[in-house]
Amino acid sequence: MESLIHLIKSESLSYGWKNGKVAEFIYNENAVWYQIIETTDDGKNYLVAPSERNLENCPVVALGLVAYLIRNWGRSETLIYKEFYELCLFEYINSENKKPGSFKRDLDAEHYIFHISEEEKRVSYSQKIYPFLTEPDSKSINEYVKSYFDFMKINYSEKSSEVKAKSVTPFSFYLKNIEKKDELIMLLKERYPNGKNKQCAVMLAVLYENEILDLPDKPLELYYAIAAEWKIEDFDRRGHEQILKKWWIQISKEWLQTHTPEYPSKVLTDIEYLKTKMKEIESK
User: What is the pLDDT of residues 86-144, one digit of tens each?
Assistant: First the structure.
């Protein structure tokens, strides 16, 4: 089956979408997204009049990188990646440089961290457009997406790593209600030597339930602190987020403050273990 990407790029009405719908896609250059506009089966009338269109009855089906990629399909890969990254960087800086203290920050490097997180969400959302496309089309887009993240890592990650190393708040800062923080950290490193994935999730649950953990407004700050304290070179924010959700730890300060998760036996055992050890530490 012939590729259908060029039809989206040109905003053409088509009867040949893979899912059988008759529709066209409208590109919003400012928002960088494609919105679907469906018609009757004969293509003569829109299902929703232009004056009545909104994001509910004519939803966005691709945004961010995927939308920009389709819009620029056929151009140089490197140019597409570079232009899209710089577009997002400009928007980030234009937003952040109005905040107090921004002059002390390296906004270029901060953006790299922020952009990866945001674009992962947008790429996931943009799978809504795949039912309209052929399987080879969807496969090609996925390959470009993977290549884009590799491109960012090669071209922008080094400076970002330097900023993270300089700006990470010490892990001890997030510990409360205990005076001998260094000894507690040593105990945690013995109990959870790699500080990653399930170990990290269990450790945070134990600290939280023992009222030792002071949660930041931005959870990633805590994870970067753990990565720095445990000297984790291959720290993976996305991996942490997925594991923590799986292990009953939500990435939300409000959620943790208002819910009592049903922890697995490992967490319950360690909660009691840490209570005992804390008493020993404080009594020395």
Answer: 899 889 888 888 888 888 777 887 888 889 889 999 999 999 999 999 999 999 999 99
Same-domain check for residues 142 and 34: yes
Q: Are residues 143 and 175 in the same domain?
A: no
Per the structure, the count of domains in the chain is 2
Structural contact between residues 146 and 87, judged by C-beta atoms closer than 8 angstroms: no
User: Quick one: 22 and 102 in the same domain?
Assistant: yes
Amino acid at 137: D
Q: Which of 71, 165, 157 is nearest to 115 (CA)?
A: 157
Torsion angle of C-alpha atoms 94, 99, 105, 108, degrees rounded to 10: -20
Model pTM score? 0.58
DSSP reduced 3-state for 74? coil
Residue that wins the pLDDT comparison between 267 and 24: 24
Residue 57: domain span = 5-165
- 228: closest CA among 149, 265, 173? 173
Q: d(Cα 113, Cα 100) in Å, to the nearest integer? A: 20
